[in-house]
Specification:
Layout lengths: L5 E4 L4 H16 L12 H16 L3 E8 L2 E9 L9 E9 L8 H15 L4 E7 L5 H6 L3 E11 L5 E10 L5
Parallel strand pairs: 4-5
Antiparallel strand pairs: 1-2, 2-3, 3-4, 5-7, 6-7
Helix pairs in contact: 1-2
Length: 176
């Protein structure tokens, strides 16, 4: 079943912060390796998203949301604040889609929107990492990201135990 959704940059509004926090908690609860451990406390999730949206306001990142009507069903972050010797690069982070909405093209649409936003900001090299177990490797590879390698025992899984991380990149243009 295909869902009708739209993608938009997210802003600092209480209902947006709450929706992002709920999505982060759900993702971690279902094993998503997005830097947090289960159980994730609501105030920790809320604090993270307040800081992330403030960083977006400062131009250091872009947080995109996928909406079904007014309901947030997914998000991805484009990290823009790279070192001075990497002005052409951005990083994909915090890709999350609600469990009930997976497999409907939302992740692909979020990645496409992130790529378009990156190019508008002269960022033509994207990098990302994902957990080897239960991560988004299949989606990223289908979307043209190239696997660089695997770092063993990189992080703890949300419910405990170590997992490796897979590093990817994608060139969006030829650069200068």
């Amino acid at each position: 079943m295909t869902t009708s959704f739209h993608i938009a940059p997210l802003v600092y509004e209480p209902e947006i912060i709450t929706a992002l926090s709920d999505l982060l908690i759900e993702t971690v609860e279902h094993g998503g390796s997005v830097s947090f451990m289960h159980p994730l406390q609501e105030q920790v999730a809320t604090s993270f998203w307040k800081s992330a949206i403030n960083s977006a306001i400062a131009g250091e990142r872009l947080v995109l949301g996928a909406f079904e009507g007014a309901y947030l069903v997914g998000t991805v972050t484009l990290m823009l604040n790279c070192p001075p010797n990497q002005p052409h690069r951005a990083e994909i982070a915090k890709m999350m889609v609600r469990v009930t909405h997976r497999g409907q093209g939302i992740g692909r649409a979020l990645l496409k929107a992130a790529e378009q936003q990156a190019l508008q900001r002269d960022k033509w090299l994207l990098t990302l990492d994902t957990a080897e177990e239960d991560g988004g490797a299949e989606l990223y590879e289908k979307f043209g990201f190239q696997k660089v390698g695997v770092i063993p025992d990189f992080a703890l899984k949300p419910h405990g135990g170590l997992t490796a991380t897979v590093i990817y990149y994608k060139k969006l243009g030829s650069g200068e």
